[in-house]
Write a structure and sequence with these properties.
Blueprint lengths: L2 E3 L5 E5 L3 E5 L7 E5 L8 E3 L4 E6 L4 E5 L3 E3 L17 E6 L5 E5 L4 E5 L7 E5 L15 E7 L4 E6 L4 E6 L5 E6 L15 E4 L6 E5 L4 E5 L7 E5 L15 E6 L5 E6 L4 E6 L2
Length: about 270
């Protein structure tokens, strides 16, 4: 599922066998950090505290390792949309003061939870929880990226086949990748799941899940370029093909890209140069 870089270039992976795994550089044998019930999605490391936050999709909770804290803090959640809990959490990011932003697949919104809060507030999507395709709506959001320096929140708007960028505090999103319906054309995506935003030039790397490829969108581009997988959406298990890429991580120097190739049950590394 999700894949992120952590301390000393350790690769942390959430596995559909309901585990959080840690792989040291150049080591194919993982250390099992902990186990979870019911489908962990995208992990996130809070650099302030070194805690790892893992949304659990079917448990409607966010687990925090190693403290065993949860969001919501009472550890109780339900399968409906409310400000008091998280329902079907997918993407997660944390800002420099500890605010947690989490996307809800079925509520079609992104919520912000302040430190120690018992409820959240909506920062993107409709307060009704209804899906939509307007600039103020989302439909099954997945991964998140926070550019705190520019007050940007990027949201992978999965079933709208686009990536939206919000200025924090504004309800209106701007499409920065996709947004032309589902398809394999260079200006299209098909159920994207995760992104990485380059710290070098602002390019957006997109896990184009149902197209079995990784697309790179330069700033202000109207088309993406295939940099891994098949440009025409062909799935495969060779070293050059992907099958439902779900998560993405890129090292600090942006030399290598790591892709969780979910339906091939592997993580693939690609050179970016």
């Amino acid at each position: 599922m999700g894949v992120i870089f952590g301390f000393n270039n350790t690769l942390y992976i959430t596995d559909n066998a309901n585990r959080l795994l840690a792989f040291q550089p150049n080591n194919l044998i993982a250390r099992v950090i902990t186990s979870y019930p019911n489908w962990p999605t995208f992990p996130f490391i809070d650099n302030r505290t070194s805690k790892i936050f893992v949304p659990i999709f079917l448990s409607n909770l966010i687990y925090i390792w190693p403290t065993n804290e949860t969001i919501p803090p009472n550890g109780i959640s339900y399968s409906n949309c409310s400000m008091n809990w998280v329902y079907s959490p997918t993407g997660i990011v944390i800002d420099s003061v500890g605010n947690v932003y989490v996307s809800s697949f079925f509520c079609n919104w992104v919520m912000k939870w302040a430190p120690n809060a018992t409820n959240g507030t909506i920062v993107a999507g409709s307060a009704s929880g209804h899906a939509g395709s307007s600039s103020t709506s989302l439909y099954a959001p997945y991964g998140l990226v926070l550019d705190e320096a520019n007050s940007f929140l990027y949201v992978v708007d999965g079933y709208n086949h686009r990536v939206q960028r919000y200025v924090l505090g504004s309800p209106n999103g701007v499409t920065v990748a996709g947004g032309n319906g589902a398809g394999t054309a260079p200006n299209q995506l098909n159920r994207p799941t995760a992104i990485y935003v380059s710290k070098l030039d602002g390019s957006i790397y997109v896990c184009d899940y149902s197209n079995n490829r990784i697309q790179k969108w330069q700033q202000n581009a109207t088309n993406g370029t295939t940099i891994a997988g098949s440009s025409n959406g062909t799935a495969g298990s060779t070293p050059y093909l992907l099958y439902n890429p779900y998560g993405i991580a890129i090292d600090d120097q942006e030399n290598y890209m790591y892709v969780s190739d979910s339906s091939n049950s592997r993580v693939q590394r690609f050179s970016l140069h």
